[in-house]
Each structure stands twice: as C-alpha cells, then as structure tokens.
C-alpha cells in the first residue's frame, strides 16, 4: 500500500479536490510515518478468531460481524510491524477483546445497574486477580495471564494499571452520554483519552524491545508528554473516520462530533476542525521526540518509535477497515 502521505505532510503535494469525506481526511491529515505491516498478520487473525470463540465472545452473530468488520489483527499488524508472533498475538487478542468490551459497555451504558457489575468485575481482575464470573471476565483473566507470562512484573503492572484507567473511562463515558448538552470538546477529549484504550499497549511495545526502560526514562517529563500525544493522536484519527457511523447511532464521545456540537456545524466541518487539532498534535510529537532523543538510551528511542507506530497504524487501519466504510459514501462537503 502506498499513498501520497507516506514520508511527508499532505501539504507538500498538489491539492486534489476531494470527492468524499474519506478523500478529504486523507488529503488534509498530516501523516509523516510510512505504512508498515507485520508478516505474521494472517496467523494472528486466525489466532484471534480461535481465542474469541474459546471464550464465547463471538457466539452472538452481531459480535462476530463486528469483529469481522473491525479486523483486530490488522490493527495489531500495522501498530506492531516488527513484533514477534507471540507478542503480536497478545496485542491482537487484546484489541479484539477491547472492541467487544467497548461495544458491550456502550450497549448497556444507559442502564447503570447492568454496566456497573461488568466494570467492577474487570477492575477486580486487573487490580486483585479476582475470579471471573462472565465470559468477558474469563477472557480478560486469560489476557492478564498472557501478559504476565511474556512481560516483566513491572511491565505487567503498568499494563494492568492502564487497563483499569480504560475501564474507569467507560463509566465516565456513560455519565457523559446521559447529559450530552454539557459535553464540549474539552470534556470529550478528556474522556476519549481514557476510553481510547491505547496506553495499555505501551508495556507490550516495551516488551517487544526485549528490555525494560529505566524509571528515569519512563518518568521523564518529555516521555510522559509523548505518551499523551501519541495516545491522543492514535484515537482521534479513528474518530475522523468513524464520525459518520457515530453520528448515525447517536454516539457522543468522538472528537469530530464534539466540534460539530460546539460550533453547530456540519459533520464535515467538525471533521476538519478535528484534523487541525490532530495535525498540531502529530507535529508536536515529531518535534518533541527529536528534541528528546539525545537524552534517551537506544531502548528509550525505540520505545518512542513504538508510540509513533500507534499513530501510523491507527491511520492506515482506519482508512481501510470496513467498520468505517461509510466515510467513503459521504461527500466532502463545504470546506471551512
């Protein structure tokens, strides 16, 4: 796969009129990172299918269709192009699990009496090693086992902590959905940073380096900022491509739709406002990573490169995954 964006900003190429919203996003979004994929993607896809089936997570035909349209192994492949097969499989399993979990949480989110037990079970497993009582809980417990077997104890602890933050974010999302009038871009971005579920994967990226970062590098202010920038860009990019779908089903926690509500504009205009914010985020990530590189070890530099991989991977996955195919059918509309 090659695109005009690979290796540079869209602005460096002649402007071609966009026919669809997808074309517009691809023309305007700054993507300096080239497309890469993992050669073990097809094995990971088969592994995901078997793992989900073993825990009954695709027994519901609608869940099976959702996974087929989401292609979790493809997202893992694009985000972790150099990962070994074992670690790629863990990442693909976790991506699939989070999509199933997130869709289930969204389905029951307007009924707290059903949502709370689901979230509390996950927190109990991640925090205390509690025994699961549902198929989702059993799958999460098995994911935790896989992570603990492959990662160092500190990496596994960071994975569990970031996973708990993701689960808590789904509760915030449910509360926000109940009062959408007050849901501006600032609050939406804060909740999205939790529900993105990106940061639980950074310990897996670290494990792929066959080493462990020293605390001084993990806690370096610039590295903490880079984690925030990469996670935000990685989740906001799919928001661009999913805005049409989310608008249709009444979704609220989406950066482009938050801009649409705040400025009372079209979906297309909301997407373009979000593109500008993402471009600034990616530009800051590039600049800060270059400035910080002399202060980092080779392991630290590779860790930051793994963060960049999530920005790149989420872009190339979003523009091709069937889950967001509606974006190609919507006209670009008027530019701001």
Automatic annotation (TrEMBL):
Pfam families: Terpene_syn_C_2
InterPro entries: Amorph_synthase, Isoprenoid_synthase_dom_sf
Gene3D superfamilies assigned to the protein according to its UniProt record, in alphabetical order: Farnesyl Diphosphate Synthase
Signal peptide: none
Protein name (record): Sesquiterpene cyclase
């Amino acid at each position: 796969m090659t695109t005009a964006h690979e290796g540079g900003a869209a602005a460096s190429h002649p402007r071609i009129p966009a026919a669809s919203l997808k074309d517009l996003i691809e023309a305007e979004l700054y993507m300096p990172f080239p497309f890469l994929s993992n050669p073990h993607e097809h094995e990971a896809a088969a592994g995901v299918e078997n793992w989900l089936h073993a825990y009954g997570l695709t027994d519901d035909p609608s869940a099976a269709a959702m996974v087929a349209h989401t292609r979790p192994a493809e997202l893992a492949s694009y985000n972790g192009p150099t990962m070994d097969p074992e670690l790629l499989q863990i990442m693909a399993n976790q991506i699939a699990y989070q999509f199933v979990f997130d869709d289930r949480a969204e389905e029951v989110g307007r009924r707290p009496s059903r949502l709370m037990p689901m979230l509390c079970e996950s927190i109990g497993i991640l925090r205390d090693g509690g025994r699961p009582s549902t198929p989702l809980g059993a799958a999460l417990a098995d994911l935790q086992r896989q992570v603990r077997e492959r990662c160092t104890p500190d990496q596994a602890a960071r994975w569990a902590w970031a996973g708990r933050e993701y689960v808590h974010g789904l509760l915030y999302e449910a509360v926000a959905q109940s009062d959408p009038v007050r849901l501006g871009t600032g609050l939406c971005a804060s909740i999205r940073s939790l529900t993105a579920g990106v940061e639980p994967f950074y310990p897996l990226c670290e494990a792929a380096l066959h080493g462990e970062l020293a605390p001084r590098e993990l806690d370096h202010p610039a590295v903490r900022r880079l984690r925030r920038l990469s996670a935000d860009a990685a989740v906001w990019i799919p928001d661009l491509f999913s805005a049409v779908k989310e608008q249709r089903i009444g979704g609220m926690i989406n950066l482009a739709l938050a801009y649409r509500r705040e400025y009372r504009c079209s979906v297309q205009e909301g997407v373009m406002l979000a593109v500008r914010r993402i471009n600034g985020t990616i530009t800051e990530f590039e600049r800060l990573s270059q400035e910080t590189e002399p202060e980092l070890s080779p392991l630290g530099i590779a860790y930051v490169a793994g963060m960049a991989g999530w920005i790149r991977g989420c872009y190339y996955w979003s523009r091709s995954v069937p889950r967001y195919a509606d974006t190609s059918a919507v006209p670009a509309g008027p530019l701001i």
